[in-house]
Amino acid sequence: MKFDEAYSGNVFILSNPDFEESDVVIYGMPMDWTVSFRPGSRFGPARIREVSLGLEEYSPYMDRHLEEVKYFDAGDIPLPFGNPQRSIDMIEEYIDGLLEKGKFPLGLGGEHLVTWPILKAFHKKYDDLVLIHIDAHTDLREQYEGELLSHSTPVRKACGLLGAENVYSFGIRSGMREEFQFAKDSGMHLYKFDVAEPLKKVLPDLAGRNVYVTIDIDVLDPAHAPGTGTAEAGGITSKELLDAIMMIADSDMKVVGADLVEVAPAYDPTEKTQIAASKFIREILLGWTNKK
């Protein structure tokens, strides 16, 4: 796969045109082949980039400027429409290549199944990997309506790959009774409803660990993020998610990669979802990608 060709359309604001000299690679995964309710998240990566042009380049949260981070927007992986297995194979291969080149991968989804092949690639490099999962949904199903490849399964798959004790879920407010029972019995760490407060308690235990973070935009209440495929009432605010991002930035963990998924622009003509997502990406770039 090619890594060093810039996206042919809009790129994330202030993207460096030079792949080789960049430390971070932003890439899109325009896939929504397995969604269980509303499709459209395949259009999320492009729109997050487009609305980023309205961002300030300076963050008062991090007291940093985007010029201080070298990142390259590689555009979207050309995933084959309607073919989940081939798509996840391509994503895994792509991340393998980025990690081999020493880049920090920052992914834009796409449905949440895209996180599964990313974790498979990271697990090859980091055998002690921890997953922080911020989401409205448990994503702990083994299958959905008989389909093993589903956006409702990636965290269950991660528990099998990484060890359930290395999986931490925050903000969860939706799932089957059996999923919550699995979380309890397996030894994974599942925190319902809130993000910032339980995260604050957990972070000291993860000091020095290699951590991958996945954020599903539907962790936000639909009042703050209606543009998503499976909106769930009772969520957190944009400010609370920003607080969590800053906590992670200030922690002693080593964040080795991240993604933000499930932005579906068609359901939010106000653009508040896309605008929030692009701001979260800015803060991740400034707060997480410089952690050594």
Automatic annotation (TrEMBL):
Keyword Metal-binding: yes
Cofactors: Mn(2+)
One protein family per Pfam: Arginase
Keywords on record: Hydrolase, Manganese, Metal-binding, Polyamine biosynthesis, Putrescine biosynthesis, Spermidine biosynthesis
Pathway: Amine and polyamine biosynthesis; putrescine biosynthesis via agmatine pathway; putrescine from agmatine: step 1/1
Catalysed reactions listed for this entry: agmatine + H2O = urea + putrescine
Regions that span the bilayer: none
Top-level class of the enzyme under EC nomenclature: hydrolase
InterPro entries: Agmatinase-rel, Ureohydrolase, Ureohydrolase_dom_sf, Ureohydrolase_Mn_BS
A molecular function (GO) term: agmatinase activity
Superkingdom as given in the UniProt entry: Bacteria
Manner of cofactor binding, per the entry note: Binds 2 manganese ions per subunit.
Residues noted as binding Mn(2+) in the record, renumbered to the chain: 112, 135, 137, 139, 216, 218
UniProt EC number: 3.5.3.11
GO biological process: putrescine biosynthetic process from arginine, via agmatine; spermidine biosynthetic process
Family note: Belongs to the arginase family. Agmatinase subfamily.
Functional description taken from the UniProt entry: Catalyzes the formation of putrescine from agmatine.
Protein's name according to its UniProt entry: Agmatinase
Species in which this protein is naturally found: Exobacillus caeni
Lineage: Bacteria, Bacillati, Bacillota, Bacilli, Bacillales
Gene it is expressed from: speB
